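@channel sequence for tomorrow's demo:
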Amino acid sequence: MPNTSNALRRNLPKLSALSAMTAFGFSMPIIILFQQAHGLTLTQALLLQSFYSLALVICEIPSGYLADRWGRKPTIVTGAFLLSAGMLIYALSSGFIGFLIAEIILAIGGSCQSGTIEALTYDTLTALKEEKRFLKVNGLQGFCVLGGKTITSLLAGSLAAVSIILPLWVDVGLFGLAIPLSLTLQEPLRQVMKETQHLKAIWNVCTHALIRNKILQGLLLIATIVAVIDLQIFWFLQPYQEAAGLPLPLFGLTYAAMCLAGAIAYKEAHRFGQRAESMHTLIIIAIVLILACIGMGAVTSLWGLSFFIMEGIAFGLFDPIISNLINHATTSDVRATVLSLKSLAARLLFAASSPLLAFSADKFSLSYAFFLTAIFGFTALVIIYVTTGKGITRATAQ
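structure tokens (generated this afternoon):
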């Protein structure tokens, strides 16, 4: 039988490998250089990223719903095919239109993976009656992802030095390997929603998670705020390094150090056990991120780069803890949709806030932008605590 314990247990290392393989991206650190080598301006390159983000936002919830209705495995397999096809189109293209098609296909493939791998991980552990191990398993997945990014950030430059297109072909092969691996996954038995009116079903899941269920509402809101702060710190890394006077060849080392620190934090998060799954822990980690922003705003120097390491550790601890709580607070028939909703909320808020923060960095200073990020984060945390703190407390007390 396909749903034996041994077959299901083999899902776990496979899902860790898939998480890493589809997130490595040897081409990520040099993609703008690749685009410029094919005649694109920086404006066109950033426009491609805008289209990618837009496609990802549009597909995030539908792909999660598809995973809940159609199945985790078929959605993951589809995502693997699309990621491989998108990267292949990128490698074979030489102009804006080809790159745009590739970006859209990559976004759709990424949305199929987003939330679905995590949902299948939790469903697998539930079927094995080992859902209490999710924090450890999810932390290992995060370790594989960030550990892979550490490696790629160090190797991408060397590959590009041989040929600017070589990192893309390596990604084609890497994403291609994810296809046969995803085909070997086993889908455990789980609840499946009975609603047949798909738009109504999606609306019901979203309103349930964001409005009616106070536990999920609180968890999703704090997850969104912390993710936005983390994204903003990440995108300010390169201009901060430049302002601090770090030589350009060493830029990748800082990113690698961030990823490595985050990877270790992901892997070790489970050691804190249930005592870490509390409202106070979530708030403390969020405050650490805010303090990192303040530190970056107050100090612009090479030693100030240590605040980025602090960010990597803080988010590496926060993400598996909040994911465990959200998975515990939802059911298998809507799990992928809820997890996709978490990603969607963070991307939308980041898209809405980042232009203002970027403008403040250009108009005033990078330090001003960091302080503004800290003020935004602290204000949002206070509002969340006042309005939904009881819901999060109930979730973390279970």
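heads up for whoever presents: The domain at 1-184 is CATH 1.20.1250.20 (Growth Hormone; Chain: A;).
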